[in-house]
Amino acid sequence: MTTRILLLGGITEALAIARRLGPQHVYSLAGIGRVPQDLQCQVRVGGFGGAEGLASYLREAGITLLIDATHPYAAQISRNAASAAHSAGIPCWALRRPAWQAQAGDDWREVEDWAGLIEALKPFRRPLFTLGREPLQHLDEIPPEQFWTLRALEACPGNERCEVIGARGPFHIEDERALFQRRQIDVLISKNSGSVATEPKLEVARELGVPVLVLKRPALPEVDRTFDSMPELAAALDL
Prior knowledge:
This protein is an alpha/beta fold. The chain has seven helices and twelve strands. The chain is elongated.
């Protein structure tokens, strides 16, 4: 049987794999960010309609291998992928890059959820959020003594207590250092994505003695095979 892959993207390594796939394979994107134009494989943009919709797509498209290379915090998509692959009777593989580990000099404080984050933020005045767009839903909740800087893929309106910066990685340590100093950042809020492209912010926080509130990684489903890196997955696929 000829292998036909559906690759669920969401992290940088997924695009590197997609660039090695031929025209019989499909690279799926949620629709956030830029759609690459230099791929030989097919590109599908948009959702599938949950686990049942994804399972139907797998059957109809003749997919024989599902690869979950979504963001470590996209837990619902990962659960849908594992369930859909099982329902369709095909293997599910996952690329799950390792989490960052705190180093000497780091002041990391893990929080479970948004409520825990807001509680942990109370002593601070100038937080830098690097969680994506989620904080936008809470702009009306900013206490008067705080001013938020929020970095997301695209700039968008904030309010008098929050400025939203549009920026895409990779980020360089000199630019991150300048951002922290210019905005007088006294706490960093981050997901533990494990991405090399966004790691410099952690280095700067360590340099400046700035605490980091780390949103705990969600539990992800078991799959048939997991890989820690793009080269490891590429080797398994013989790409």
